[in-house]
Each structure stands twice: as C-alpha cells, then as structure tokens.
Amino acid sequence: MSAKHTLALALALGLGASWAQAAELRIGLAEDPDVLDPDISRTFVGRIVYASLCDKLVDITPELEIVPQLATDWTWSEDGMELTMNLREGVVFHDGTPFDAEAVVANIDRSQNLDESRRKSEVKSIASAEAVDDLTVKFTLTAPDATLIAQFADRAGMMISPKAAEEAGADFGLNPVCSGPYKFVNRVQQDRIQLEKFADYWQADDFDFDAVTYLPIPDGTVRLANLRAGDLDMLERLPATDLPSVESDDGLEVASATSLGYQGITFNVGNGDKADNPFGQDARMRKALSLALDREVINQVVFEGAFAPGNQPFPPNSPWYNKDVPIPARDVEAAKALIAEAGQEGNATIEIQATNNPETLRLMQVIQAMAAEAGITVNITAKEFATQLSDQTAGDYQASQIGWSGRVDPDGNIHQFVTTGGGLNDAGYSNEEVDKLLNDARVSTDNAKRKGDYDAALNILDEEGPIVYLYHQVWIWALDKKIEGFTPYPDGMIRLKGVSFAE
What's the CA angle centered on 392, arms 389 and 397, to 5 degrees? Predict the structure, then answer.
C-alpha cells in the first residue's frame, strides 16, 4: 500500500496524525539553505528544497536532456533572437493564482530588476518578455543566447507567484509561494524546513508523500547516525569515507551520480579591503598554493578515491575541458620559487574560510599540511555555510573553500563567477579579455566556436587563478531500503516524482 493510501486509511479509521506520519519523508541535508527566494538564493541545498517547492519552465533528464516542465514546448526564430514558449494549461501557484504568460513576464522582470537578484546575469540577454496570449510567452533577446534554455532549467526558470512576491517584497523568502508538488509550511533556521503536498498540483498523483521535511545536519557522521536510527529516511552527500559502511548495511542503500560541478578555493582579489593581501594581489602566490597541493592525494586521503581531481570548472571527462591546461602535478620547489619571486618568503600567510562540517575540515587540514611544506601558512576559519556565503558576498574574507554544484550548459559553471560584475563573482575578479571571451561564448550556437572561447578564457584564468579548482564531486545518497523509485541525477537534486515507501 502506498504512503498516500496508508494516510487515507489512517484518517478514515480515526487513527490520527501520529499514524499519518508514515506519509512524511525526512531528508538530511549537509547544510542549512540560505533564503528560500529563487531570485536571491545561491546554496546547493536550497536547490534541493526547490526541487519539490518550485517548478521551472524546463527540467533535465538524468542524461542531461532538457525537457518540458511548466513550458510544454518552445521554438527559436531563425536568427536566434526570439524564443517562443507554450505554457502548460491549468497550473496554479500555491496561493491559488494562475500560472500564465503574464506570470512568466513578471518573474523575468523580477529576476532582472530586483536589487538583490542573483539571476541578473543569467537572464541578461532578454531584452523583453511579452505575453502573446494566456499560454504563450515570447522572449526577444539582445543577442543570440545559447545558454538561455539551460538557465530556465535552474533558478532563473523557477516561477513564483507574482501576487505573493509583490505583497511580501523583500520578505518573500520567509513564506515562498511557487507551483511545485509541495508547498511551504514552516521553517526553523538551522533545524528544519517543512513542506506539505499541494493538492492542486498538475501531477499530484505522481507524488506519494503527504509531507516532506528537510533537516540540516552538517556533521556527516551525525547525519548517517540519524538515518540508521530511523530519524531520517534519506540523506544527501554521504561522506565518501562512510561509503563502505553503508554498502555493507542491510538496511540501507546507496545511489550515486557524477556531478556537473567542482570544488575549489576562491580568492578575494578585488572585493573590498580584505583583498589587500599577498594572495589577493599577486597571481604568483595563488599559483604557488595550487602547486603545493597534490590533488590525487587529496582525493585518496579525504574522499577514499571516490571523487575526480580537477583544475577547471569542467571535469576532465567533459567535452568542455581544456586539455592544454592539464591537472598540475605537485611541485613544492616551484611553489617556493614563486613565493620568493613575489618577495613573500616568511609572509606567505592566508586565511581560508570553510564550511564547518567534518569532511570539509579534513580537506582543509590536508591542504594546510601540504601548503606548509611550501612555506605557506594556511589559517582555517570554520563557518556555518550560510554565514560563509554571506561573508563572501560582502568581501569579508581572504579566501574561501567553496564549490558549485554544476550546470548543464558550460556557461553556468564559469560566466557569473569570473566576469566583471557577475552575480556570483565574490572574488571581485575583472579581466576585459575574459569578459569578451565568455560573453562571445554565450551568444554563439557553434559549439566549436564556444569551445575555443572557453579554452582561451581558461588559459588566462589558469595563470591568474582567482579560483583554484581542486576536485569534482560524485553525489552520493544513502537511503533507507524502504524507499522505492529514487533516481539519481547528475545535478544532485532530489526529485520525488515516483518515489514512495515500500509496502
């Protein structure tokens, strides 16, 4: 019997809410999401919540094909300057207001013009959005944009209720109103986010759980202990060191998918006063730290060899990887020589902030030890993840161990991080040639031309090093064996369509 039928039977028999708890899915998150506003938020775990809360114009398959969601189909004009989308009929937001072309227009306007919006660079190419009729919207672009459809598969394509957004203003994230299969109920910061099933969802019959609760538990050991104790039903980002233990546990299952993203160290090179340090002002110092690190040893020691060493925003098996810039071998003497050349012997000290979970702190301790052998002193500052992101945005950091969950189109892994004024350019990095190359790559529909632009940009970025890339994650989920129908996706999201508790 499915969870929803179990709940219905329980209520019919008068067994009350305690029995109905069987219909609640509890998911352990590695961090607490930031604000639940798709235009403002930036955390990976926030996107996991959005997967149940906020439908998008389009979605992806596990094979990374872009498929309809709120838009049923779309066409491009011959010159690539207009995109016309047909919208799904009968969709309503959680507040009962209709999803239609005017709602899409309002969402694009908010993404482009809300002062706090982090989606501005993602929808920058849209000159205008027009409601042709109730279920048809036309986007006129400033130039062809090969990335736009992929942007609509993420937060830029998440549709929120215009009525709720207008009424709440800057407080929208306290009570987000979208059109996904589950609607917002409650949030206790650092403790839980509670959603309940939206009865009027257009695919409601495909979603089995009556409630979904997300519980942020930064310590992977504690997260796993909660799963084993029955306080969680599944967790995301199982630490690689726990993989053998879970695989041998008869009550648990493992699912995995290679990620689209990366982990690295972002340096503050131009974001306020804290950029004024040897590593922020001299690319040789950043290169020295990179050369002091053995990426393969990091993978083996910290992640049991489960991840892939990296040195670019794209993994080595990606068609967008620049093979002319291979992963550097560790070279302590070369690192020392660069420090001496920069005149920083005895002054090579950098503070790196990192998320306060055990796996990340183990990573930082290995980095710290390797750097010390090259004469670099790394001081580690552990922070709660949302605080880390807030400090990055404000420029209140020297360097930050941070990553990105990855996007289907290569633009999503690089443009907004390193172009001048990019929405996620916390480094404060600016290079006119990089801007030109990455902006050109956005407008071309010729993949060979785009590849050439990305390669040229990566050649520059490898020398200047605003971000030192370290490795590419494999997403690992641990699930109670009672869960059926879960499909792992390369974007790391938890999609609940077709997922249920076993009989």
Answer: 130
Upper half-sphere CA count for residue 155 (Cβ side, 13 Å): 29
pLDDT at 64: 85
Measured CA to CA, the distance from residue 461 to residue 427 in angstroms comes to: 12
Which CATH number, 3.60.21.70, 3.40.1160.10, 3.90.76.10, 3.40.50.970, labels domain 55-167? 3.90.76.10
pLDDT given at position 14: 42
Output the six-digit token pair for 351: 């503070």
Residue 93: what pLDDT?
Answer: 98
Rounded to an integer, what distance in angstroms lies between the CA atom of residue 303 and that of residue 224? 16
Q: In the chain, where are the structural domains located?
A: 3-38+44-49+180-259+475-501, 55-167, 262-472
Distances (CA, A) of 407 to 122, 259, 439: 12, 9, 17
Low-confidence ranges of the chain (pLDDT < 50): 1-22
End-to-end Cα, the chain, rounded Å: 5
- Specify the pLDDT at position 170: 83
492 token code pair: 């790391």
CATH H superfamily, domain 262-472: Dipeptide-binding Protein; Domain 3 (3.10.105.10)
pTM reported for the whole predicted model: 0.78
In terms of Cα–Cα distance, which of 305, 247, 235, 267 is closest to 473?
305
Residues 6+ apart with CB under 8 A from 114: 39, 40
Nearest Cα to 490, choosing from 473, 465, 466, 502? Answer: 473
